[in-house]
Write a structure and sequence with these properties.
heterodimer; A: about 650 residues; mainly alpha; two-stranded antiparallel sheet; 26 helices; B: about 90 residues; about 75% helix; about 0% strand
Chain lengths: ~650, ~90
């Protein structure tokens, strides 16, 4: 399967071609080249998936890890070296399929959505760069290669969030995303270094082999501040994952990242990049489970808390992309919880499978939701719910696909979200009741806020004020004047936008029917799942209640929501302001970090470092100015000094 | 004679005088070569040859120095070394 190398080479070549030559092409040519290249990748990825799952991957009863390509890149010591290679195992092959599918859909969608934007070629070049880095991340054979691509993903995410770089809020959002994830990646790097220092390897295969024996033995006994060093290393690695996957309290960058173009949000901040953290934990799952189960426990609780927290905020937001952003945080937290509650092997590893399953289905329905939202934004030129309403007549395809996605995320059978969410709930049910009930509440909240969104966009009543007035224009998605200035009634989007919606809707409906446990499990051995009807019933019930409440409150225009918001008072206000987490971080960085860490360091730099350097310069200058009179240019004076000196030396030699 | 030359080299400001002092120094050295050769190694002639070389070099050096002094006089009007404080005019 050497041709799998092409899957990551192709987007890289595309990036170079579009990045270097794109400005010489017509925008549409660049777009089509990018899309065709991505289509090639998708075809290759599907071929790899087919060949892996149905021909070569299965060895006896388990799935084997295939390494079709690997070369040594940097060698540090006899044992420790960084390789670059391709590792194909069930989860990486699944990720290849997810990434190339969503990426292809986004490429097609963007042909229409981004039409007429300045920097259209740059946009496609960056999309290719992102696809390259993300594919490189999932097929990494070792943790360091993963880290390299991890950073590349961060960079391309940064430049795509800041795509509208003339808009200050986009610039600050991209900086925020970059700094927050970079801060988390520092933990990741330190974790990698600690791990490799003890185990002498970066390789995933060696790290996870034989119940992560290498890790458990090589770390034997070392402790630091009361916790074992293995725990520290793995917790730090998880910190990197938490940053990328927007886990509390490092989630603050994701809502702001919605400043980027909507298809980018669909690709990067919903379907692929943000699940990198989940993928990382899944990749190292045996290490976590055998070497540091307490970290997994921590992951489960952080995940459960984040899921609840983000769902509460999502209820109050009025910007449709922000609702989806918080919903993404909440759903990724679900996956994290599933990993956290999972055990190793067979049916006990249900959580692991469920997490990957949810990752798979979530990628499709969340990408669909974002692209649908993009279609709506394209029609009404606004992100605000207040500007929308009653769009179902104008945009039938968007309406139906969006409804499918909402049903999928709410977990209504037979849509895909039901199956994956049900597995997660079942896994949590067997682990700990607190986590289970938290997730259960979140499932209800998810259904509620998704249908609130749905009703307010497509049902309810149209806004009173005419579209395109000053207030609308300011809150509108930052489109070029070509789009923003027009006044017209909403209309269905062109085919290039509706086609991806339809394809993704098909995926959202049917991807849940895949017998995932046959393909993906924590110990690579297939097992059988069955629906636990108690859990399933509970989750369907709460989802229906959520949808019901949303229907009562939002299907028709009424005063009830505002009334309810007044009654909730403080809670509503806190959630609307995202529980003031941004302010807390602001205070933390401004007051604690800037004042108590940066200021003393600044003082040290100004006075001690600069001082000593300036002192040296001052001494040199003073000395030279005091002796420069000797250099008079009078050869006779030199001769006099020379003679005197030689006589003196002669005298010293003679008399001492 | 050597020290007379050095004294002259240091205290005189006139370039001709400095040149003459320099000649004195060189001649003192050459006389030393000749005399010590004569008294220490009468069977060898190395010192004498060295002296002859020295005289030749002295002559050449004097020619060059006089050319420089004449040029300096043409451009600045005198030959006092204290006025020779510019690399070019």
């Amino acid at each position: 399967m050497e041709y799998s190398l092409l899957i990551i080479v192709a987007p890289f070549v595309l990036f170079l071609v579009l990045g270097l030559l794109g400005m010489k092409m017509k925008p549409s040519v660049a777009g089509i080249i990018g899309t065709l290249g991505m289509a090639l990748c998708a075809v290759l990825a599907y071929t790899v998936a087919f060949q892996y799952f149905f021909q070569t991957g299965r060895v006896g009863e388990t799935w084997a890890a295939v390494v079709p390509f690997n070369f040594e890149w940097l060698r540090f010591t006899d044992n420790l070296h960084i390789d670059l290679g391709i590792l194909l195992d069930p989860i990486s092959v699944m990720m290849l399929v997810v990434i190339t599918t969503v990426s292809l859909m986004v490429h097609i969608y963007s042909l229409s959505y981004m039409k007429g934007e300045t920097g259209f070629q740059r946009y496609y070049a960056l999309l290719s760069l992102f696809s390259f880095s993300m594919l490189g991340l999932v097929i990494a054979t070792n943790i360091f290669q993963m880290y390299i691509f991890w950073e590349l993903v961060g960079v391309s995410s940064y430049s795509l969030i800041g795509f509208y770089y003339t808009k200050p809020s986009a610039v600050s959002a991209s900086k925020k995303a970059f700094i927050v994830t970079r801060f988390a990646d520092l933990g990741f790097l330190v974790g990698i270094l600690i791990l490799s220092y003890y185990t002498k390897t970066f390789d995933f295969g060696l790290l996870t082999a034989d119940h992560a024996q290498l890790v458990t033995t090589s770390f034997a006994g070392g402790t630091f501040l009361g916790l074992s060093i293995a725990t520290w290393a793995l917790a730090l690695i998880f910190m990197g994952g938490a940053g990328k996957s927007a886990m509390f309290p490092l989630h603050i960058w994701l809502p702001d990242a919605m400043e980027g173009p909507t298809p980018v949000s669909a690709l990067i901040h919903a379907a692929t990049m943000v699940v990198a953290g989940v993928f990382l934990v899944a990749r190292l799952f045996p290490v976590y489970f055998f070497a540091a189960p307490e970290v997994l426990e921590m992951i489960a609780y952080i995940g459960a808390f984040t899921a609840l927290f983000a769902a509460l905020i999502a209820i109050t937001q009025t910007d449709i992309k922000r609702v989806l952003a918080f919903s993404t945080i909440s759903q990724i937290a679900y996956m994290m919880v599933a990993l956290g509650v999972s055990e190793y092997g067979g049916h006990d590893g249900l959580g692991y499978m469920a997490s990957m399953f949810h990752l798979f289905t979530h990628a499709f329905f969340k990408a669909l939701l974002f692209l649908g939202a993009g279609s709506v934004i394209h029609a009404v030129h606004s992100n605000e719910m207040d500007q929308m309403g009653n769009l179902r007549k104008y945009m039938p395809i968007t309406h139906i696909t969006f409804a499918i996605a909402c049903l999928a995320i709410a977990g209504i059978p037979p849509f895909s979200g039901f199956f994956s969410k049900d597995e997660i709930l079942a896994a949590a049910f067997h682990h700990h009741p607190v986590i289970f009930w938290t997730l259960w509440i979140v499932a209800g909240l998810t259904a509620f806020y998704m249908f609130r969104l749905f009703y307010r966009i497509f049902w309810n009543t149209a806004p009173k004020s005419p579209k395109g007035d000053l207030a609308t224009a300011q809150s509108a998605d930052f489109k070029s004047p070509l789009h923003g200035a027009e006044h017209h009634t909403p209309h269905e989007s062109p085919l290039a936008m509706t086609l991806p919606l339809i394809v993704l809707a098909i995926f959202s409906v049917f991807s849940g029917l895949i017998p995932f446990a046959d393909f993906i499990s924590s110990d690579f051995a297939p097992f059988h799942t069955h629906i636990d009807w108690l859990v399933a019933g509970l989750s369907i019930g709460v989802a229906l209640v959520g949808i019901g409440i949303a229907t009562v409150l939002y299907a028709k225009s009424s005063d009830k929501p505002a009334e309810l918001a007044r009654q909730m008072g403080g809670l509503y206000k806190a959630a609307l302001h995202k529980f003031y987490l941004d302010e807390v971080w602001m205070w933390f960085t401004q007051t604690v970090i800037f004042r108590y860490i940066c200021e003393p360091i600044k003082w040290f730099d100004r006075h001690i470092i600069d001082g000593s350097m300036n002192g040296l310069a001052w001494i040199t200058q003073k000395t030279s100015s005091s002796i420069k009179g000797l250099q008079s240019g009078q050869v006779q004076f030199y001769a006099w000094v020379f003679i005197f000196g030689s006589l003196l030396i002669a005298a010293l030699v003679l008399f001492l | 004679m050597f020290f007379i030359g050095i004294f002259g080299f240091i205290v005189r400001k006139n370039m001709i005088a400095i040149l003459i002092s320099l000649e004195l120094i060189l001649n003192a050295v050459e006389i030393n070569f000749a005399v010590f050769n004569r008294y220490l190694y009468p069977e060898h002639m190395d010192g004498m040859f060295f002296t002859l070389f020295g005289i030749a070099i002295t002559a050449a050096e004097t020619a060059v120095a006089l050319a420089i002094i004449i040029n300096a006089y043409r451009s600045i009007g005198n030959i006092d070394v204290n006025n020779m404080n510019k690399m070019k005019l």
